[in-house]
Amino acid sequence: MISWSADKIHDFQETLLAWYDAEKRDLPWRHDQDPYHVWISEIMLQQTQVQTVIPYYERFMAKFPTVADLAAAPEPELLKAWEGLGYYSRARNLKKAAIQLVTDYEGVWPKTAAELQALTGIGPYTAGAIASIAFGEVVPAIDGNAFRVFSRLLKIDADIAKPQTRKIFEAAIQPIVSPTRPGDFNQAIMDLGSSYMTAKNPDSEHSPVKTFNQAYLDGVEDQYPVKTKKARPILKEFYGLVIESPEAVLMVQRPGQGMLANLWTYPLVAKEQVEQLLADNPRMTDLAAVEQLVQDDYQLELHLKQLSLKPVSHTFTHQKWQITLLQAKIDEAVDLSYFPGKLLTKTDLATTPVPTIQAKMAQTVEKQ
DNA sequence: CACACGTGGGT
DNA sequence: TACCCAAGTGT
Predict the structure, then answer these.
(1) Is pLDDT of A62 > 90?
(2) Residue A290, CB-side half-sphere exposure with 13 Å CA sphere
(3) Can A42 be counted among the known catalytic residues?
(4) Could you tell me the residue ranges of all domains in chain A?
(5) What is the pLDDT of residue A149?
(6) A342 SS3 class
(7) What one-character DSSP code corresponds to residue A28?
């Protein structure tokens, strides 16, 4: 790791901000410095690309224009607005923090990064972003871009996958943040990280700060940042039950914690559970086993048939799901009182938040 | 601290 | 396909 003189720091700030002034992207949340706008955009942008976020941000602001609107938002409406964005706890945490702002803070924003971290869903990165962009505090906002950019500029060898590495970067970046334009500085670093200084195929030759990029100058840019790899997703197999009445389909709400919390899907039966039953009844078919499980658990008699040849597949960060769809028809009169789900009509589904894996399943059913 | 937590895009 | 990556946080 190298360090910069005061003169070099000043040069870097001038160069970076001049480039930013000339080339910054026109994004919907850059039209003002309203902390609410900054906040919502920063949460949406966590682990999510700009192009994906733009339409969600526009719709969200139209539906929940102020902190008070967000604090009063019913969770299903909030999740529906978040549908397809992923990491749904972000949406629930937004509401929690909005309520904190309205009640604990009486609608007055805390203005420092240290204080902002008391709000649910706001960690060190987002706190730095809001404090610098909306309130002008001279603090870094260290996201994946900042880690990558400064690891190359300064040849920082610490593993950015390790939590403790943040301290090293904070200490290295804090003295470099522009004292007059901290918000623009942080956003410029992010723009740099998503243009010239990308993770793969960077274009440092044409970067506005190439003369400051020590890793590039030394011909070792491809060695930065240092980042250990994560575990691969593990396979989880399910049967998905498409139980249809003439006007509706049976859906269940997922538990309030864990994967896809509170979202709705077709009922899923883990293949593991089916195989346990088959171990004691080796001549039974998979379909019959699922029918018996549903009968035993929910007092519901079904006549299932396999709907799709290939399972519906979806890869999450840590799990790969494969769902074989099984279809059954029921009539409206059937007793669902033991079944932990609801018959939802097309109209109901328009206001029911579902994850992408459910959308994929529904699409597969439609094609039949 | 290590891991869970979604999704879409790129190679 | 499989893997990596993208404006991270909570537990």
Answers:
(1) yes
(2) 25
(3) yes
(4) 6-223, 234-366
(5) 97
(6) strand
(7) G
> pLDDT (tens digit, 9 = 90+) per residue, A94-120?
999 999 999 999 999 999 999 999 999
pLDDT grade for A14, boundaries at 50, 70 and 90 = very high
Cβ of A316 near strand C (distance < 7 A): no
DSSP annotation of A87 reads -
A326 bridge partner residues = A241, A306
Task: Report the b/e string of A311-332 with b at 16+ CB within 10 A.
Answer: bbebeeeeeebebbbbbbebee
**CA–C1' gap, A229 and C11, in angstroms:** 21
Q: pLDDT tens digits for A279-303?
A: 999 999 999 999 999 999 999 999 9
**Under a CB-based contact definition with an 8 Å cutoff, are residues A196 and A29 in contact?**
no
Q: Would the pTM count as exceeding 0.85?
A: yes
Distance A317 CA to B4 C1' (A): 9
Can you give A233-299 as a three-state secondary structure string? CEEEEEEEEEEECCCEEEEEECCCCCCCCCCEECCEEEHHHHHHHHHHCCCCCHHHHHHHHHHHHHC
CATH superfamily of A234-366: Nucleoside Triphosphate Pyrophosphohydrolase (3.90.79.10)
The H or E element that residue A37 is part of is helix A35-45
Q: Spelled out in words, what is the top-level CATH class assigned to the domain A6-223?
A: mainly alpha
Closest CA to A181 of A233, A224, A129, A138: A138
| H/E segment holding residue A326 | strand A319-329
Nucleotides of chain B touched by protein CB (<7 A): 1-9, 11
